[in-house]
Design brief:
Low-confidence stretches: none
Strand order of the largest sheet: 1-3-2
Protein name: AAA-associated domain-containing protein
Radius of gyration: 17 Å
Pfam families: AAA_assoc_C
Order of helices and strands: HHHEHHEE
Helix content: 40-55%
Largest sheet: 3 strands, antiparallel
InterPro entries: AAA-associated_dom_C
Distance between the termini: 50 Å
Number of strands: 3
Number of helices: 5
Length: 114
């Protein structure tokens, strides 16, 4: 006899890809994260497309802050960009140079041919 599942507040149901992510080795988890972020996180997707279309594979981070400030205050815009930069770095899609305030495509991510 099959019992129905009982859900309680705070329970989490993982998708198949989420389950794979939680059990994967680090490089595989980064690959999964990169794929999901590129397709499901709008700001990460926008950054990747911008980097792919840029002349040298890099863009001023301020460009994205300016875009975000159209809908958010300066602190929220910067916080969102910082999160997206962190995700891009973890996923090995991009890197960020604090001295120049530039986001650059990670050559291994092959964003230029995406």
């Amino acid at each position: 006899m099959r019992r129905s599942a009982r859900w309680n507040p705070g329970d989490v149901l993982l998708t198949e890809i989420g389950s794979r992510f939680t059990t994967a080795e680090i490089q595989e988890s980064k690959r999964i994260f990169a794929e999901q972020a590129r397709h499901r996180a709008p700001l990460v997707r926008t950054i990747c497309k911008g980097l792919a279309g840029s002349r040298d594979g890099s863009l001023r981070a301020g460009f994205f802050v300016d875009l975000l400030r159209r809908g958010f205050g300066p602190e929220d815009a910067r916080r969102q960009l910082d999160t997206a930069i962190g995700w891009g770095r973890y996923a090995e899609l991009s890197d960020y140079d604090t001295d120049s305030d530039r986001i650059a495509a990670d050559p291994a991510a092959q964003l230029r041919s995406a």
